[in-house]
UniProtKB/TrEMBL annotation:
Keywords: DNA-binding, Transcription, Transcription regulation. The lineage of its organism: Bacteria, Pseudomonadati, Bacteroidota, Cytophagia, Cytophagales. One of its GO terms (molecular function) is DNA binding. InterPro entries: HTH_HxlR, WH-like_DNA-bd_sf, WH_DNA-bd_sf. Transmembrane segments: none annotated. It comes from Dyadobacter psychrotolerans. PROSITE patterns: HTH_HXLR (PS51118). This is Transcriptional regulator. It comes from the Bacteria. Residues 14-113 form the HTH hxlR-type domain.
């Protein structure tokens, strides 16, 4: 039995507020980051992230992202008792937002190390977004 996801109440008609109603916590964005940039798809892979998300928060955010159409949940082809998560088109559409956050964070964090992703984005952001989008769509096809 799965816990029902909390219904989203929109505070205003403002587009930024609307976006934050769905993605206003760091954990949802970090899960999406892991899926988009690192190809993570399982509960265990998300738990292994550097930020050390608590299991109850991870379960809640995965349920919320699924209930709101950003990801889907399905059985693993290898192990029927294991679930895997996949991005939807709605989830993939957040790629440019996460790219901009990556660029901003790299440029404003004095302790940030230049990753391969940051180098690619600096060289040709639009091309990188197109290639990443194409790759992500192949995963859901």
């Amino acid at each position: 039995m799965t816990k029902a996801s909390k219904e989203i109440t929109h505070r205003s008609d403002c587009p930024v507020s609307f976006t934050l109603d769905f993605l206003g916590d760091k954990w949802s964005l970090l899960i999406l980051r892991d899926m988009i940039f690192y190809g993570k798809s399982s509960y265990g892979e998300f738990l292994a992230s550097d930020e050390k998300i608590a299991t109850n928060i991870l379960a809640d955010r995965l349920a919320s992202l699924s209930a709101n159409g950003f990801i889907t949940k399905g059985e693993s082809a290898q192990t029927k008792s294991k679930f895997v998560y996949a991005l939807t088109e709605k989830g993939i559409s957040l790629l440019p937002v996460l790219v901009e956050m990556n660029i901003w964070g790299t440029g404003n964090n004095p302790e940030a190390t230049s990753t391969d992703l940051a180098k690619v984005l600096k060289k040709d952001k639009e091309k990188a977004i197109k290639e990443l989008t194409k790759m992500l769509r192949k995963r859901i096809a």
